[in-house]
Amino acid sequence: MNDQPLRIGTRGSQLALWQARWVQRAIEERWPGTAAELVIIKTTGDKITDVPLAKVGGKGLFVKEIEEALMDGRIDLAVHSMKDMPAELPQGLCIGAVPERENPRDALISNDAISLEALPQGARVGTSSLRRSSQLLHRRPDLNILALRGNLDTRLKKLAGGNLDAIVLAAAGLKRLGLDHRITSVLPPDTMLPAVGQGALCIESRTRDSRTSQIATALDHAATHLAVTAERAFLHRLEGGCQVPIAAHATIEDKRMELTGLVAELDGSILIKETTAGPSEQAASLGLGLAEKLIARGAGAILERLKQNA
Fold it and tell me: Over the stretch 273-300, which tens digit does the pLDDT of each residue have?
């Protein structure tokens, strides 16, 4: 391929490094003789750890500095958690590959209760995700939702500290770090619809870089890429970010896609949810069509109000 080492940009968290090293190994196995090295980049989201993301700018906080390094040539590829990716990418960059998805569901981790239903009245649940908190409150309006930021270890330590009864985290991150034994229960999608792209990785590249495009494409998982395409089309039409409770999840079986999406009020009092289905190759149009259905049912008014108040 090329004697120059392939520079892979990543955040420095334990989970981000696991993901980047997985991509690094996959590239070196698929392309023998290609050396890949990691370049750790600190993002704004890594620097601001005491404020909910919804109050400081949303999704782009975890990718902006890495994308800048990719655009100016300091790195050749970037590895992100797909759920951190904004609906729109900067000009000149593209999603070069989406490897096979890990479990996309959310997980409840509790000190005592065995399930969400078993949590005591008024239980204190930690999450800074508006998507998670709105769905929790829709099912259990009595819960006391407390802001929770930080990496996985930090969040687990806060739970162990006794000020929380439970926390909600992505099952994929826990599994990747060998912490899935900490999961009390995995929340089904009809209880907690996952974030757009949750459980999937994004390998981002430059659109006109044929070398990296060829390398990245070899790691792509077609079904996962189609599912993520539908979810992101849904997100893009709704102009969503971390400031609004939006969720979507697509599954594919025998080239047929089923896509479910929702928009909710912050307090969970209203939750607008729809499911659509069609050929998986029509992923983007399925996502757009589902968004239009939700808008027709009042989701647009909810999102507009939330954005104005953000």
Answer: 999 999 999 999 999 999 999 999 999 9
Residues marked active site are found at: 84
Question: What is the spatial distance between Cα 72 and Cα 147, in angstroms, rounded to a whole number?
Answer: 36
Burial of 162 (0-12, 13-18, 19+ CB in 10 A): exposed
Residue range(s) defining the domain that contains residue 21: 1-99+200-220
Give the closest residue to 234 by CA, choosing from 300, 292, 306: 292
The dihedral through the CA atoms of 202, 126, 162, 142 has a sign that is negative
| Helix then strand then coil, % of the chain, to nearest 5 | 40, 25, 40
Q: Tell me the chain's radius of gyration from C-alpha atoms.
A: 19
Q: Two tokens at 289?
A: 């069509």
pTM of this structure: 0.93
Residue type, 304: E
Q: Which residues, in sequence order, are bridge partners of residue 250?
A: 259
Q: Which residue matches tokens 């729109």? A: 88
Residue with tokens 């099952």: 171
130 shares a domain with 251: no
Assess if residue 193 is contained within a domain.
no
